[in-house]
Amino acid sequence: MSTDASESPATAEAPAPEPPAPPATLVPAIGDIEVPIHCFHCDGHYLVPARHVRTGNVLFCPHCKGSYVVNTSVYDAVHRVVREFHAALVHEFGTVTVDAAPAEAAERVAAVLPAVRDAVGAALAGIRPPGAPRKPAGIFG
Ligand SMILES: [Zn+2]
User: Fold this and answer.
1) Which domain does 121 fall in, by range?
2) How many domains does the chain have?
3) What distance in angstroms lies between residue 58's CA and the mean position of ligand 1's atoms?
4) Which is higher by pLDDT, 100 or 39?
């Protein structure tokens, strides 16, 4: 019995095929929802995806390059709001894909995103991020 040298070794295996990418769903991933950050350096506003709002993360203002350190209060406020809105969207639209979604559903989702920003802005309004100047206290403060 001679070994056939032309035979390819049995150990060589074709790489597993890549699983197809899941179709984009109508409801954005929770981390992709953009939230507004108010820059206390220049009083400007900018949007960052929620996934960047992590405790200890430093965000930089695109207007003045001022830094904004995310602390636990900021993280909690942002993610509480985003989770609520995201859960409501998922409840309503579930796993409807962008391709299969009726136009009015896409409009409904698009209409919710500004509401998320308003709610996040309101939640953050009461939080003083690290480094932000304090309002001068009154004489009895
Ligand atoms: Zn700024």
Assistant:
1) 30-125
2) 1
3) 13
4) 39
